[in-house]
Amino acid sequence: MRTEQGLVRGVSHGAYTSFAGLPYAAPPTGPLRWQAPAPAAPWQGVRDATKPAERCVQMPAPGAGGGAQTDAGAVVGSEDCLYLNVTVPATKTAGKHRPVLVWMHGGAFLGGSGSDYGTERLTEQGDAVVVTVNYRLGVFGYFGHAGLGSAPPFGLADQQAALRWVRANAGRFGGDPGRVTLFGESAGALSICAHLTSPTAAGLFQRAVLQSGSCLTSFPRGALAPGTPAYEPFAAQADVQAAGAEAARQLGCTEGGGDEVLACLRGQGTGRLATAQLMQSFNRPAYGNELLPVAPDAALASGRFHRVPVVLGTNHDEMRMFVGMTLAAFPIRTESDYRARLVDAFGPAASAVEARYPAARHGSPALAWSAALTDRSFTCTTLAAGRAIAAHAPDLPLYAYEFNDPDAPVLAGLPANPGFPYGAAHGFELPFLFPSFPTERPLSREQTALSDRMAGYWTSFARTGNPNTADAPRWPRLRPSSRPGPSVQSLAPGPGGIRPVDAYTAHGCSLWDRLGK
What we know:
The chain is an alpha/beta fold. It is built from 18 helices and 17 strands. The radius of gyration is 22 Å and the shape is globular.
């Protein structure tokens, strides 16, 4: 196979062929650290594309080992990480190009890798070309400083560079560069929200699927743990630059002008920068630059977004993943515990929230807390984002889903909490699209059937801009207003599990619309 940069050799897996570790940009190291991605250099001969490249620098997952040991701790990955992976159906098509799906992984802009996601189901069953992407994370991807001026969020700039690579090379892999679907989960979905509102992304994709993240996603105070601040996924450029000045002070890079400070910062070793404090201080993409002129929520509200077909989705029990990870340290055992968390998060509105989410109705105070946060932070904000899109583009194909398998396999590594089932928590739809995604047990027969349906919906949407197929339950368009009605497609296993539902009413969105943020 020949790409723009040179020949590559992949691996045949029978029904599909994979190409791993293809560079889409130059290594962002040395003087290219905290620069917009530069073009990848061409090569001579045939490049081996049989193994994924290293993931971008990130802190290890809790309990994970590996990585180079430094005096700053364990570092996983490499700064030389701007690579992507491509899977292609093995069968040839005579003069017909396939749709292309480009996956942006989640991980709070702090972790993850494109190679974590096996795309064989979407490639084989959907007859599609599928691309997964690495992009810079944490302090390497979202650092700002006055010396950098109005630099773009580098991780998002990486993603757009990958999309430009796809546009240039898709045809060589049998893909249609005019039918590119950008899809992603969590931070990947937030990234797609950014690209929907980014002038520099114009023409780089023709459809978008946002899984568990929208332009209106946010968390109230105390959502992740008592005392944690409210979370907005995007930050003003001035705030990121101020954090960068403080980081430079902590690293001893204060002498001279902006160029000298940046030279000092670029001279710091990877391990010196990849600390938990610095990584977590820079995981919010900045707006107020060429890539993101304004905050994505404001852009959406004012109609400044690309007119492409959109699928918006959430999981029925999103916040159980976040709450479950912290229950051992911050238990919510009693109604008094629950009420204290409500007051911390919602202040004078706490009593109204408790009335809508009484602990007795939800099985436990912890489950009630999770339900309130799911509705406030994910479901209702996603539906509101859909209304904002429809307000400015009422004829745009717009669809929504709710993944709702109460017995979905638990993702590997999550703690067990007696009396606290995860249900359809954040990220639990991923094994249904990517079968090799690690879980505690495999999919059942009914869950595998749901997985097949989901792959069909996703790839049909990539092919036509409409998720519906002739042999699957019909998926309605999302209603353009907050009027109750079954306009969200429920995705659950078993008879009747796939059907339209009234998510607005079921998740109490009228309350959250009244309360706002």
